[in-house]
Structure formats: structure tokens, C-alpha cells
Amino acid sequence: MPNIRHLSFADIQEYVNRSGEPAYRARQLYAWLWQKHAVSFAQMSDLPQSFRERLASDFAFPVLQIEIIQQSLDGTVKCLFRLNDGKTVEGVLIPAGDRLTACVSSQAGCSLGCTFCATGYLGLQRNLMAEEIFDQVAYLNEIALQQAGRRLTNIVFMGMGEPLLNYKQVMLAIEKITSSEGLAFSSRRITVSTAGITKMIYRLADDQVKFNLAVSLHAATDDKRSQIMPINQSNSTARLIEALQYFYQLTHNEITIEYILLKDFNDSLEDARALVKLYRKLPFKVVNLIEYNPVPASPFQRAEASTTNQFITYLQKQHVNVRLRRSRGADIDAACGQLANVVHPDATLLHAGRQ
Length: 355
Known about the structure:
Layout: H1 9-18, H2 24-34, H3 49-58, E1 65-71, E2 77-82, E3 88-96, E4 99-103, E5 107-109, E6 124-127, H4 130-148, E7 154-157, H5 167-178, E8 190-194, H6 198-206, E9 212-216, H7 222-228, H8 237-251, E10 255-261, H9 269-279, E11 286-291, H10 305-317, E12 322-325, E13 348-350
Parallel strand pairs: 4-7, 7-8, 8-9, 9-10, 10-11, 11-12
Antiparallel strand pairs: 1-2, 1-13, 2-3, 3-4, 5-6
Helix pairs in contact: 1-2, 4-5, 6-8, 9-10
């Protein structure tokens, strides 16, 4: 049966008309799908029982299932989501100060093979559909409301996968997340992170997207970046900067540099100087230095605290807007680079709500 959430509003209007229902049923149904986040036709309480039964006979309505919710000692919440085909992905709710950030996945696994990232060692299983990305945000927003009494403040596409290699579905998901007939989040509160798929950065610019962009740089020279990020061999730093310049010229959206500090690899003052040189090529908003969270298959370790401080001090003296992003949720493998569907049996488990 066709997936009900693959229908446009016009398609739903046509179906409602063919069903002999009043026209306003289309808007009611659409609201249940994208605004109220129903997970079954039975939940659509203002639709007649007969119409709900007809919907169930005509359409499939697959939704993500929350299999496990774990809570870190620092309050970070990680959800293991089960997809309709049995595969799993993870999403994370990160409370920090006045922010409640949802970190969502765009692919099951990842094809890029970055040597510092746990997800990269899984390989790519498949792209997520727009509704599967949407469901992650909707569920994490519900958890935020339950735990903190307020909605998410930010959404980042920094979970499993490379968003720009699932371009169409990510854009469709963001459309539903930001629509007034969906979750009504501000585009300016959404950040999409890329390892540097230059062709798709040009497309983002041409499509005049409204959200922010983060670049997972992690090394400022081609030699070092290619060692840890195979994508750099076909998307060099020079090509990446050209694409980002084009993106900024057309959108003026904020661009952030993400830079994981790896011990004795990219944490020297020479590396800092290379980063400054690259930083000055564009009006980047900020350089986010990230504490590395070691993963079993990777040879890297976290940079020493003293080295990190020296790195930050040098950047500040060069008038670089820099901040250190502290590791969150590392005890449940929910931190940056750790998402690999690992469940900690001794972690605090939360009730999965209506699931």
C-alpha cells in the first residue's frame, strides 16, 4: 500500500474528495500527519471511525519505533530508533544551558569512512526517508517537553550519516519541520553539517536554503585531512572553500567550522596556523573545537588539556571566534563521533512514552 506520508496536501485533498468526505477533512488529516505527529490512524480522534478504517485499508503508515531511551549522567538523552525494515539509527537530545538541541541522523550508517568516527565503521546501510528524519525530531521534541517543559530550541543534522548525500529527503524533512503546517521550527535554528560534499554545497546555494551550515573540517591541510577523511581526496580544501564562498555569497547564512582535536595529529601550533589561514578566507561564524571521544576501532585519542588550551589561546590571539564544545553523553556513546547503535545495559533507561 502507498505510504500516506508520501502524499502531498493536494493528493490528500483529492483522496478526501473521492472518499465523499467534506473538504475540511484534508486539513484535519494533514495536521495529524505533520503537526500533531500521530503514529496511527486510530489516534486521529476528530476523524470519523469509518474514515479512519478506510485510511487504514488504503494506506501504509510506517513510523519510527523508539526501542530504547538512555540518559547520560550529564542529562543527555539518546534514543535508539527502529526503522520499518528493522534497521536502527540514533538521535540525541542535548540539554546545555538554555538550549535543548536535537541531533538527528540522515542515514543508517555512513559511507564516508572517516577514521575517527564510529558511524563510519558501520558502512552505509541506506538513506533515511523524510518522514523518518521528521519522526526523530518530533520524538525528541516530545521528550524535551516531558523532561524540561519546553520545546527544542535547536536542531542539528550531525547524527549518523552525511546529510548532503541524502539531499532530497533531508530537504523534504526540513520543509515539514519548518512549515507552519508541520512543527513550525525556525530555519535559523537548524544547522546541517557536511564533511564537504562540494557539489551539493553549490546546490544548497542555488536552492537558497535558509538554514545554517557546519563544515566538518578536522584538519586544515589536504595532506592531513585526506588521512582521516577519504572524501577530501575528491573534495579538496581549495574546492571546499570555493563552494563555501559561493554558498555564502548567495545565502549569507552562517557557516561554522567543526574541528575535532586529535592527540599528536592535528593539535599543534602549526595546525592552528593552517586553520587560521583557512578561517580568514570566509566570514565564518565560529570555530567549534570538539573534544574527541575515542571509539574502539579508531587509533586516535583526545588531545591533552594543556595542548587544547594552547591551541585555543593561539586562535584567540589571531582574532578567531573560537569555542570549545565539551563532550556530552560520552558515558552512553551519545557524544560526537560515537553513534554506532551501542546500548549500555547499566545506563539509566527512560520510559519510551506512547511507544
